[in-house]
Amino acid sequence: MVDNNVMIEMRCCWRECLLLKVMDAMSSLGLDSHMVQSSTSANGILQLTIKSKFKGSGSASVGVIRQKLRRILARS
Description:
This is Plant bHLH transcription factor ACT-like domain-containing protein. The protein is of the alpha+beta class. The protein has a single domain (5-74), classed as ACT domain (Alpha-Beta Plaits). It has helices at residues 18-28, 62-74, and strands at residues 5-13, 31-40, 45-54. The relative contact order is 0.28.
């Protein structure tokens, strides 16, 4: 995280609606995504890069963002 800019890079097992849930979580944290790049490999690994900015003056910490993403990934 630099200033109000956030870049998220992650690799995980692909599952249906995962990208939608990640994007929804980012929005709920006040992040406005302006670049999303995703790909899925032949063995079912999702690679995701998101570049975002915080909306307004408030911002979530790196720890809060990680915790939210881990919760999403833990749910199967």
